[in-house]
Specification:
Layout: E1 2-11, H1 18-35, E2 39-45, E3 48-49, E4 56-57, H2 59-65, E5 74-77, E6 91-96, E7 100-106, E8 115-116, E9 129-130, E10 137-143, E11 149-156, E12 169-171, E13 174-175, H3 178-209, E14 214-220, H4 228-234, H5 237-240, E15 251-252, E16 265-267, E17 270-272, E18 275-279, H6 281-284, E19 287-292, H7 300-306, E20 318-322
Parallel strand pairs: 1-2, 11-14
Antiparallel strand pairs: 1-20, 2-6, 3-4, 5-6, 7-10, 8-9, 10-11, 12-13, 14-18, 15-18, 16-17, 19-20
Helix pairs in contact: 1-2, 3-4
């Protein structure tokens, strides 16, 4: 069994022409075929309306997997709003060779975001606001060929970019005051850590029902292994201080790699592992190997400043192989 996670990075959507999507598909499809995965977690898949007023569809994604082995897989994606439509940007998708028997998306369901009253907003905020996560988590239960149940959680945590504060932005990436930027950065950190905590609450609910549950948490954490969000989700006994909780800790599979191979993104020359696969001890028992396909990975900052409409993703896909079938 092979499980993969891949941030396709702003793939498809309303603003992208047919030629642009075709170029993306030509760049991404060979990477998908190389993964040769049975279960895939995708982040940043955008949607589009076929006509004004029509329901949104993942048309670029449909094109990406057509005429590939993945075309026959079952898949589920996140939806938003009362009409349960795909979001315009950054949908999560899970594909599975095997039957998806249950699915749920979690966004401020297990954890209500804290109330917060901005202090630098202009005009001044008159009351506290409820902090909401940017995106939901996507959880599916998959019946494997050996009849065991596998829980897969796909997530894309908030990036460490300052959240907007009313009246304090002077441009897309510029702020009027240092204090306003600092407050926006604090809010972004609050959202990222809060969503990580909600993921941990979901994991413990699964363990409450089955202490030997097979769990894989995959996706773009926008955090490295010792950063707060990843530590929250892993909950190692070195952090909890309780050996009785060891069976509930999650294991980062990247620990099996040499340090030189342990990165999924390059930013201004710095190699970072932001895309992770964390597994329960029961699933770790079947673990064989991990691959990070970063051989051709470019520097995202260089690309942003010097390449117009690059069709590539600047996140490397990650794939783990397990002995279970």
């Amino acid at each position: 069994m092979r499980i993969a996670t891949f941030n396709l990075e702003d793939f498809g959507g309303e603003k992208q022409s047919t030629d642009r999507v075709t170029a993306q598909i030509e760049a991404l499809r060979p990477q998908l075929l190389r993964l040769d995965a049975d279960i895939l977690c995708f982040q940043e898949i955008n949607s589009k309306r076929a006509a004004p007023g029509a329901k949104r569809g993942l048309y670029a994604f449909d094109r990406l997997i057509e005429n590939t082995p993945y075309a026959g897989y079952s898949w589920i994606a996140t939806t938003f709003g009362p009409k349960q439509e795909f979001a315009d940007k950054h949908n999560l998708v899970i594909l599975s060779r095997w039957r998806i028997v249950d699915t749920q998306q979690i966004r401020n369901n297990l954890l209500r975001g804290p109330s917060y009253q901005p202090v630098t907003a202009e005009p001044p905020a008159e009351e506290a606001m409820a902090v909401q996560w940017d995106r939901p988590l996507l959880h599916v239960s998959i019946e494997l060929a050996d009849s065991r149940l596998l829980h897969v959680i796909n997530l894309h945590l908030r990036a460490p970019l300052a959240s907007p504060v009313d009246g304090q932005k002077s441009g897309p990436f510029s702020w009027k005051t240092a204090s306003a930027w600092a407050e926006g950065f604090y809010l972004a950190s609050l959202k990222r850590s809060g969503q990580a905590l909600e993921a941990r609450l979901l994991i413990d609910k699964i363990f409450d029902q089955d202490k030997k549950a097979l769990i894989a948490v995959c996706g773009d954490f926008n955090a490295e292994i010792r950063d707060t969000p990843t530590r929250i989700i892993c909950s190692h006994i070195e952090d909890t201080g309780n050996g009785a909780l060891s069976s509930r800790a999650l294991v980062p599979l990247e620990n099996s790699l040499s340090q030189s191979r342990r990165y999924t993104l390059i930013h201004n020359g710095r190699k970072q592992m932001l895309d992770h696969m964390l597994v329960s001890n029961a699933l770790l028992a079947d673990f064989s190997s991990l691959e990070v396909h970063n051989e051709t990975l470019g520097d995202e900052l260089v690309a942003y400043t010097s390449i117009e409409d690059s069709p590539q993703s600047y996140h490397a896909p990650v794939v783990a192989e397990f002995k279970t079938v």
